[in-house]
Amino acid sequence: MTTEAHSPQQPVVVIMGVSGSGKSTVAGILAGQLGWDLEEGDDLHPPANVVKMAAGTPLTDDDRWPWLDRVADWISDHTRAGLPGIITCSALKRIYRDRMRGDHVVFVHLTGSTDTISHRIAARTDHFMPTTLLDSQIATLEPPGPDENVLVIDVGRKPADEAAEIITQLHLHPETGSTALGSTHPGVSSAPPLADLWTPDTPATP
Predict the structure, then answer these.
(1) What is the pTM of this model?
(2) CA–CA gap between residue 45 and residue 53 (Å, rounded)
(3) What pLDDT does residue 79 have?
């Protein structure tokens, strides 16, 4: 009698980067193709943080820690249960990522030129992060080092191409039952920034 080989546990993928890098769009595509749980990290912010960001006031570390704890809890709930998942989080500093990292956690850093990201933010109408905070985020960003289990993805292409590269590089595959702990609408981002679908080579619609 033959027995089916046990598949290695798939990761929780943290889609990280500054606002406007396309986190929500890429995460939604990944979740839709893989059937994995999806969480929009921004939805875990306390209301006071949302008010500050909408007013153009940068968050302090004291503001961020309760939010990062909620993100880390979502991640650990999945890794402990042996379930994969996808969560978006800016994760700008190494000390923030330290709060989230662990076995079966992979950071995917979406990165691109300031011009590309500025264009995307300026075109967005459905998100509380104003363009004026981009410089603050870029100044705060500490790019992950090679010791941080990170995959770096250059943005500026179609989001579907970026998602395909992530699936290929990380050897990800669909997994039955992965929605047990996560979103009630797997594969659908709770706050999809439609302007992140913009790419430089997309011709204007007449």
Answers:
(1) 0.79
(2) 10
(3) 93
